[in-house]
Design a protein that fits this description.
It contains three helices and two strands; from the N terminus they run H-H-H-E-E. It is mainly alpha-helical and 117 residues long. Strands 1-2 form a two-stranded antiparallel ribbon. Strand 1 and strand 2 form a beta hairpin.
Length: 117
């Protein structure tokens, strides 16, 4: 290629380029309250509320279980206490005390129980 041809080729692309007036594009603002944003925040909020509700229900059920278990323990203790009170009342009678004293070799002197003879 001749130097003249090269020079022409280099100038042609420069001529082909035309300067276009720059137009400012208006940037579309994505607002905080766009429809998609509101829907997304609503979905996330509902999801968090459901998880919170499930957590609270689990806590309430656990507390109900603990209350019922304590009620059962109280009922069992009441039965044991009643049995002990009945034994105390049974052993505190005079005839029962005399019976136990005679079984263990204790003697009575004027309605007083003494140890040994």
């Amino acid at each position: 290629m001749s130097p003249l041809k090269r020079q022409v080729e280099q100038q042609q692309p420069l001529q082909r380029r035309t300067v276009k007036p720059t137009q400012k594009r208006k940037a579309k603002k994505k607002g905080l309250y766009s429809l998609q944003g509101l829907v997304g925040m609503t979905v996330v909020g509902v999801f968090l509320l459901l998880i919170g509700q499930l957590y609270l229900d689990a806590q309430i059920n656990e507390l109900h279980y603990q209350v019922e278990r304590k009620k059962l323990e109280i009922d069992q203790q009441v039965v044991v206490n009643e049995e002990l009170y009945s034994k105390i009342s049974e052993l505190s009678t005079y005839s029962r005390a005399m019976e136990i004293a005679k079984e263990n070799g204790l003697s009575t002197y004027e309605n007083t129980i003494t140890i040994g003879e």
